[in-house]
Amino acid sequence: NDVEVYLLSFERCVEREGWPKEQWARIIAPFLVADAQKTYFDLEPNAAADYTLLKAEILARAGVTPTVRAQRFHSWTYRNGKAPRSQMFNLIHLAHWWLQPEVNTPARIVEVIVMDRYLQVLPLAIQKWVGQGEPANAQELIALVERQVTAEELLRAPVAGTQRDLRAQGGGWSRVKYNDNVKRPANSYQCYKCNELEHIAIQCPSTDEPMEYSLSVESTHPFLKTVKINGKETMALTDSGSAVTLVSSALVRPSQLEHTQKTGIICVHGDVYYYPTTLVNFEVQGCIYEVKVGVVHKLPHPVIIGQDFPG
């Protein structure tokens, strides 16, 4: 039942027998069951044949992430009545599972420890949002923190009457002005979607919840453009207000998903949901970009281009 213990026992066994690591995935494959077996078949053949990648994906889908391992290490406490030596080795074991010195370089271990400490001292709201995003390295952690800080500043800052918003119009771009004729008190917000006061677009109550869609349906919506995702032609919403670019799971193979590197999405009710990410080739008007996108099962459109899009 404990996938970590099972994999550790397997590794000890094959190491004792002297079997080469490049054969480990092939050896363990027939003994995998349930979700672990499904993970094996979901991966591309090359990835499934790599034991390190296979193990990482199995553990990620089982909810055993670096964050969980760090929490286990930090939550360890000394227990009276138990042998001190045994408890010390338990703590060492937890540290090994968290820091993985057998695969991580000294520099990477230092980075993991620094990231952990950095997360612990962040404000609680940012810490929760960023921590669940499972940043893989310091740069991703910083990017998540900066994104959340920016979002909070936008929620606090009043919208100036002269501020403009970029919107797609047909083949080009035009600027849409906020309603300057509405008298509003100082330090109030105005939504550019409905022009009502006291909230911004991300909080707009008139925004519909995500719904099912058909990839074959053509639309004359002025903000929809034809794009290609990994060579597959589809429609993209270009003026969504989304901070990140999202694509439907129908456009991405399950084996391409990175469950260990998720992106957080704030819905209209303020709840945060986390979705796997992947790299896709994004073709817009003849230009091709490699973009890291969030993959969502249900979207109002096949593709939603966010503010992080490089084009």
Automatic annotation (TrEMBL):
Signal peptide: none annotated. Pfam families: gag-asp_proteas, SCAN, zf-CCHC. GO terms for molecular function: nucleic acid binding; zinc ion binding. Keywords: Metal-binding, Zinc, Zinc-finger. Residues 191-206 form the CCHC-type domain. Residues 71-146 form the SCAN box domain. The keyword Ubl conjugation does not apply. It comes from the Eukaryota. InterPro entries: Peptidase_aspartic_dom_sf (IPR021109), SCAN_dom (IPR003309), SCAN_sf (IPR038269), Znf_CCHC (IPR001878), Znf_CCHC_sf (IPR036875). This is CCHC-type domain-containing protein. The lineage of its organism: Eukaryota, Metazoa, Chordata, Craniata, Vertebrata.
